[in-house]
Request: fold
Amino acid sequence: RKGFVLLTGEVVAGKTLVSRMMLLHFGASIAFANINHAVRTTGDLMESLCAEFELPYEPGASNAQLVRMLHDFLLTKFAQNTPVVLLLDEAQNLPIEAFEQLRMIGNLEADDAKLLQIAIVGQPELQRVFQSPQLRQLKQRIFRSYHLPALDRNSTEGYIRYRLSVAAAKDVAVFSHAAVERIHAVSGGLPRIINTICDNAMLSAYSAARRK
Reply:
């Protein structure tokens, strides 16, 4: 119940996977909203939030009405000892006004505990967005900030072998050390690109009847 956390990373670094694993880890012990579509106004943000939590708001309801409805919902969940989490993916696309609205609803408290935990996830430019003077107050409220880096060479090899083991491969050393070096160099250590290169390499090896 600390309020805001910030996670950034390159386009294919695995940010969405990390956030999904977080939600999977907590499972039914939390109530959560996952917003990953375009939010262009504070009204869009509040309506999306209420819709995700299945709150029965009237079309055309004012921002104040939506905030009050959300507040009542958060107090109910707090009384049930159920943390409420908002996950905002691709947040680098949010307008400054929406971030300010996040700060306002993030201020909702009960017994000195935050009623809403907000995980802000986005691309590296999100770090620059938070350097804006308009977001100074929100930046001060971030409890944890982490940048998800690309995999290094050893982690790339470990990642490839782990994926092969999950696929029940009898030999997880399908890729030679030289191949791993090349995969890491070309992919830049980004998991999604590693996947694509490995899939195509294995298909080519199959076509050529090669086991390495």
